[in-house]
C-alpha cells in the first residue's frame, strides 16, 4: 500500500528551513542575519513504517530539476542545477553504499502555485527539485511572508506505509532567500545537502551542539550537516561536507549491513531503572579526535520497543568513550529528532562507566568514563547505559547511602526531592557525612537549589552527623510543597554520605468513624476528624436525630398555623 506523506507532517518529510531569530545569532551575525539565513532544519531514519522498517529508497533515485527557464533568484538555472547535482553527490561518498542518484534532466514546465498539486503528493513517477525564484510558491505553501524566513524544504513524497520504501521525493528551494547575491554559494549547497539528506530518508542529528554559534568559525566543520540548526552560523562560507555522523547515518540506510574494512561498531541499549528508555541521545567519541570522530544515535529511534542504540562506521582499531545526553528541548516541530517531540527530559549528561554504570546519580559518577576499545570490525555489544534522573524522590522511611562526586563546593547535577501535603506536620532529615569530609546541607522550597541563589534552609560546614527538622516553628513554616535537597561536597575529593527521611503527618479519624452508623441515619453523614468512643458516637447520633425530630415538629406546626391563617383570610375575602 502506498501512502502519501502529507504536507502537514513537515517534521517527518523534511521541515521548513528558517532563519535563526535567537538572541545568540543576533549577537553573532548582527546585521548579516538576513544576508546569511540560518537553517532550522539525527542520526537515524526520518521515519519508520508500520512494520518497523526505516524509510529508504530501494531503487535508483532519479530526479528532475526545474524547467530550464527557472532561476534560483540571482543564481542561473545552470548554476543551480550544478549545485543540486554536487549536493546529491556528497551522499554517494563510498562505493560500498547501495545508493545511486541521477539527474534525469529538466521538467518541461515550472509548477505554479495553481499546478503544484500535480507534482506534490501525486504518484507521477518523478522526484522534482523546484526553483522557487521569487518565493511565491513558498508563500503559497507556507503562508504569506514565509518566503522571507523559509529557505526551502525537501523529503520523501510517496512512501509505502508497510515496507517504508520511498518511491518519490520532492524539494522546493526558495530563491528569494537562497538566491541573494550576498549569500555564499557554499551556504546554499549546505542547505541543499541537508534537505536532500531528508529526501534520501535521513532525520536530524544532535552532536557537538556547543560549537554552533560559539563565535569560532574554525569548529563549524565538526557539526553534522544534518544538525537541526545551521552548522555554519559562524562561517557561512564553510564548504558543504559530511561529518562522520552524517556518513554513519546514511550508511545505516544503504550499507546493506556491510561496512568498509577498517571500521567497527558499538551497540547497546538505554534503560531507566531497568525499564526501556527511548529518546536519550547517545554519542560514541574517539578519545584521540573527539569532535571529528564521533557518532550519535538516539535510543530507540529505529526500534520502538527496546531503547537500542548503535554507532557504526567508527574507525577501528580505536578507543572510544560513550556518553548520554538529553535531546535539546528546542528541537521540536520541524526541528525535531525522530518521533521525540517534545524530547524526554529530567535526566543528566553522563558517561558509560562499565561495571559501575547505574541509574543512581549518587552511586555512579556522571563524569567517570570507561573506555570502549574496538580491535577490528567485530562489534562491541552490550554497552548499556542507565538514565540518571536529576531528581531522586525521597519518601518517609527512606534511608540512602551514596557519594557526592563533584568537589570543592560544586553543585551536583542531581538533587533529592521530598513532597509534603496538608497533613504533614514535620519533615526530619538525618544526614551523616563520611569521616573527614565537609558538606553544605541545602534545602529549597518550591524549586531546585541553584548556584548563586541562597536556599531556603542551609547548614554549612558539616563534618558531623546532623538531624534537621522543618515544622510549623520553622521560618518559613512547613507547608504543602516540594522540598529540594542539595548535598554540596566542600572537600577536595569525592565524599560519601548517608541520608534518611522521616515525616510526621496529622492523624485523622478512621473513615469508618467519620460518618453516622447506617442503622441510625440511613446514609453516610460526615463527621470527619471527630474521634469518639463507640458509646459517645451512638449517643451523638441519637441526639442528632432528636434535634432533627423537634425541628420537623416545629416546621409542621408552623405549616398548620399558616394554613389556618390562610383559610381565615380566604373566608373574609368571600
Summarize the structure.
This protein has four domains: 2-214 and 223-253, Collagenase (Catalytic Domain); 263-386, Immunoglobulins (Immunoglobulin-like); 391-505, Jelly Rolls, CATH 2.60.120; 512-569, no CATH class. It is 18% helix and 26% strand. The chain is built from nine helices and 25 strands.
Word description of this protein:
With 574 residues, this protein is of the alpha+beta class. α3 (77-90) crosses α6 (185-199). It is elongated and about 85 Å long. α3 (77-90) links the parallel β3 (61-65) and β4. The strands form five sheets. Strands 1, 2, 3, 4, 5, 6 and 7 form a seven-stranded mixed β-sheet that branches. Strands 10, 11, 13, 14 and 15 form a five-stranded antiparallel β-sheet that branches. It starts with a strand and ends with a helix. It is built from nine helices and 25 strands. The protein has four domains: 2-214 and 223-253, Collagenase (Catalytic Domain); 263-386, Immunoglobulin-like (Sandwich), CATH 2.60.40; 391-505, Jelly Rolls; 512-569, no CATH class.
On the 0 to 100 scale, the average pLDDT is 83
In CATH terms, what is the architecture of the largest domain? 3-Layer(aba) Sandwich
CATH class type of the largest domain: Alpha Beta
The value of Rg in angstroms is: 34 Å
Tally of helical segments? 9
Tags for this model:
single chain, 574 residues, alpha+beta, Collagenase (Catalytic Domain), Immunoglobulin-like, Jelly Rolls, 4 domains, 7-stranded mixed sheet, 5-stranded antiparallel sheet, 25 strands, disordered N terminus, disordered C terminus
Amino acid at each position: 500500500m502506498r501512502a502519501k506523506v502529507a504536507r502537514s507532517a513537515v517534521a517527518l518529510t523534511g521541515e521548513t528551513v528558517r532563519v535563526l531569530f535567537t538572541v545568540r545569532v543576533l549577537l553573532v551575525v548582527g546585521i548579516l542575519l538576513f544576508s546569511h539565513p540560518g537553517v532550522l532544519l539525527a542520526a537515524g531514519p526520518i521515519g519508520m513504517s508500520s512494520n518497523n522498517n526505516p524509510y529508504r529508497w530501494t531503487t535508483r533515485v532519479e530526479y528532475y530539476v526545474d524547467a530550464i527557464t527557472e532561476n534560483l533568484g540571482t543564481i542561473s538555472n545552470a548554476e543551480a542545477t550544478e549545485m543540486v547535482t554536487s549536493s546529491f553527490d556528497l551522499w554517494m561518498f563510498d562505493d560500498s553504499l547501495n545508493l545511486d542518484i541521477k539527474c534525469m534532466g529538466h521538467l518541461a514546465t515550472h509548477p505554479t502555485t495553481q499546478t503544484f498539486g500535480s507534482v506534490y503528493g501525486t504518484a507521477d513517477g518523478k522526484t522534482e527539485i523546484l526553483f522557487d525564484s521569487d518565493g511565491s510558491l513558498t508563500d503559497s505553501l507556507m503562508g504569506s511572508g514565509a518566503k522571507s524566513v523559509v529557505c526551502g524544504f525537501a523529503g520523501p513524497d510517496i512512501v509505502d506505509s508497510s515496507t517504508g520504501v520511498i518511491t518519490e521525493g520532492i524539494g522546493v528551494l526558495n530563491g528569494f532567500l537562497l538566491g541573494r547575491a550576498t549569500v555564499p554559494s557554499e551556504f546554499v549547497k549546505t542547505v541543499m545537502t541537508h534537505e536532500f539528506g531528508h529526501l534520501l530518508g535521513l532525520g536530524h542529528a544532535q552532536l557537538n551542539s556547543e560549537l554552533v554559534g560559539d563565535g569560532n568559525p574554525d569548529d563549524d566543520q565538526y557539526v553534522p550537516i544534518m544538525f537541526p540548526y545551521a552548522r555554519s552560523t559562524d562561517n557561512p562560507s564553510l564548504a558543504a561536507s559530511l561529518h562522520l555522523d552524517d556518513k554513519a547515518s546514511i550508511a545505516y540506510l544503504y550499507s546493506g549491513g556491510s561496512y568498509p574494512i577498517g571500521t567497527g561498531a558499538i551497540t547497546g541499549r538505554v534503560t531507566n531503572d531497568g525499564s526501556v528508555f527511548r529518546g536519550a541521545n547517545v554519542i560514541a567519541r574517539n578519545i584521540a579526535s573527539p569532535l571529528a570522530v564521533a557518532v550519535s544515535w538516539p535510543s530507540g529511534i529505529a526500534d520502538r520497543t527496546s531503547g537500542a542504540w548503535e554507532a557504526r562506521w567508527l574507525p577501528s582499531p580505536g578507543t572510544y568513550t560513550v556518553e548520554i545526553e538529553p535531546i535539546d528541548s528546542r528541537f521540536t516541530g520541524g526541528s525535531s529528532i525522530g518521533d521525540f517531540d517534545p524530547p524526554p527530559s529530567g535526566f543528566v549528561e553522563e558517561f558509560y562507566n562499565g561495571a559501575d554504570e547505574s541509574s543512581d546519580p549518587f552511586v555512579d559518577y556522571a563524569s567517570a568514563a570507561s573506555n570502549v576499545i574496538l580491535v577490528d570490525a567485530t562489534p562491541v555489544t552490550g554497552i548499556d547505559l542507565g538514565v540518571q534522573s536529576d531528581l531522586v524522590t525521597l519518601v518517609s522511611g527512606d534511608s540512602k547511602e551514596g557519594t557526592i562526586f563533584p568537589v570543592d563546593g560544586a553543585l551536583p547535577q542531581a538533587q533529592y526531592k521530598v513532597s509534603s501535603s496538608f497533613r504533614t506536620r514535620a519533615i526530619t532529615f538525618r544526614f551523616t557525612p563520611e569521616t573527614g569530609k565537609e558538606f553544605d546541607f541545602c534545602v529549597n522550597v518550591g524549586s531546585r537549589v541553584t548556584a548563586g541563589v541562597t536556599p531556603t534552609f542551609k547548614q554549612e560546614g558539616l563534618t558531623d552527623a546532623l538531624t534537621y527538622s522543618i515544622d510549623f516553628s520553622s521560618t518559613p513554616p512547613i507547608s504543602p510543597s516540594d522540598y529540594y535537597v542539595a548535598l554540596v561536597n566542600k572537600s577536595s575529593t569525592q565524599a560519601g554520605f548517608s541520608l534518611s527521611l522521616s515525616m510526621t503527618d496529622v492523624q485523622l479519624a478512621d473513615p469508618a468513624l467519620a460518618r453516622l452508623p447506617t442503622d441510625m441515619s440511613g446514609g453516610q453523614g460526615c463527621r470527619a476528624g471527630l474521634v469518639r468512643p463507640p458509646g459517645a458516637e451512638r449517643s451523638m447520633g441519637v441526639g442528632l436525630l432528636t434535634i432533627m425530630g423537634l425541628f420537623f415538629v416545629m416546621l409542621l406546626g408552623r405549616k398548620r398555623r399558616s394554613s389556618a391563617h390562610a383559610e381565615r383570610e380566604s373566608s373574609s375575602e368571600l
